[in-house]
Design brief:
Number of helices: 7
Largest sheet: 7 strands, mixed
């Protein structure tokens, strides 16, 4: 299995002059430091690939032990294209990926590991809240049916931690190719569900803290949790 962190974006809503994954937290660590330490507690750090773009050198200098993939179009593409670049390098592998702005409790990885061992594609979800501006989902026959920010009557939120099985990755790559430049990677998953009947589980991690930091309020909430 390979692990990907999507860290190419500008993150303009936080207003930082540096990449959002380098945002410092109350505990003295950055978002990305917390991510990599948590991941390394369960998996091999040599398997981590980071997709970079905006001010990439700042991330690469801070974490020289990681592998990097550069998205030169970071300023005009969204996560569908950053993830596509990374998956193309690992076509025969299963891949666990994280949005680069997610702060999560490492115990979440214990919930996810059985699905990884079964090679079952999944999206980690929080069923305790359903905010309008977040990616939401619905189910059909116990698998994800819809997955986007425009979903009506969503059952919960996708938290930015996902896994694609080695059995499904080639179809997913094809659907990411179809996505528009400004699409999120969730659009590729939706297309694969619709066109290829991909079976993707929703794994509930609501028991533990997990939050994407998009706004100053999110950062304050995360710091209150630490």
């Amino acid at each position: 299995m390979k692990i990907i962190i999507l860290a190419a974006g500008i993150g303009s809503r936080l207003g930082n002059p540096f990449p959002k994954p380098l945002t410092p937290l109350k505990n003295g660590k950055s978002i990305m430091q917390m991510q990599t330490e948590n991941i390394a507690s369960k998996f091999n750090i040599d398997d981590i690939n980071v997709v970079v773009g905006f001010k990439k050198d700042l991330i690469m200098e801070r974490f020289p032990e990681l592998m990097y993939i550069y998205n030169p179009f970071f300023d005009r593409t969204n996560t569908s294209k950053s993830l596509l670049q990374a998956l193309k390098k690992h076509r025969d592998k299963s891949v666990l990926w994280f949005n680069g702005d997610v702060v999560f409790d490492e115990k979440i990885l214990e919930i996810l590991n059985p699905y990884i061992q079964e090679n079952q594609s999944f999206v980690a979800v929080n069923t305790s809240k359903v905010a309008d501006e977040e990616v939401k989902y619905t189910l059909k026959n116990n698998y994800i049916f819809e997955l986007s920010k425009t979903v009506k009557n969503g059952l919960g939120e996708a938290v930015g931690i996902n896994f694609i099985s080695s059995n499904d990755i080639l179809k997913f790559i094809d659907r990411l190719e179809e996505c528009d430049d400004n699409d999120y990677f969730e659009r590729g998953l939706e297309l694969a569900i619709e066109k290829d009947a991909l079976k993707i589980k929703a794994v509930d991690i609501s028991a533990y803290n997990c939050m994407e930091i998009d706004f100053i309020e999110d950062l304050e909430n995360v710091n209150n949790m630490l």
